[in-house]
Specification:
This protein has one domain: Immunoglobulins (Immunoglobulin-like, Sandwich). It has no helices and 9 strands. Strands 3, 6, 7, 8 and 9 form a 5-stranded antiparallel sheet that branches. Strands 1-2-5-4 form a 4-stranded antiparallel sheet, with no helix packed on it. Strand 4 and strand 5 form a beta hairpin. The protein is globular. The two termini are 18 Å apart. The model has no long low-confidence stretch (mean pLDDT 95). Keywords: Hydrolase. InterPro entries: AMPK1_CBM, CBM20, Ig-like_fold, Ig_E-set.
């Protein structure tokens, strides 16, 4: 898994690219604070090599909790900036600091 951040000089946003290797998966989405944990509109595109990838513009100077939704199961990104316990989920969420 990988997270790439590209800060834009022209706008107060950061382009964040999420990459998830999941050859066997049918569907992968990234859900978190930035999209109200809704997978609609945040589905990653499957590449020919079996990796899922997607880029999103997120407002700078924020911290976001997120997870991947891989065929209905939640998965954390091992490359996240840090992890934070979430009582609602009863699990740790990955944290992205922009």
């Amino acid at each position: 898994m990988a997270i790439k951040k590209q800060y834009l000089k022209s706008k107060p946003v950061c382009k964040v690219t999420f990459t998830v290797p999941a050859e066997e998966a049918k569907k992968v989405a990234v859900v978190g604070d930035f999209n109200n944990w809704n997978p609609k509109g945040s589905t990653l595109r499957k590449l020919k090599n079996g990796t899922f990838k997607g880029t999103f513009e997120l407002p700078k100077e924020n911290t976001y909790e997120f997870r991947y939704l891989v065929d209905g199961s939640y998965v954390n990104d091992t490359e996240a900036d840090r992890f934070q316990w979430n009582d609602y989920a009863g699990a740790e969420n990955a944290v992205l600091e922009i």
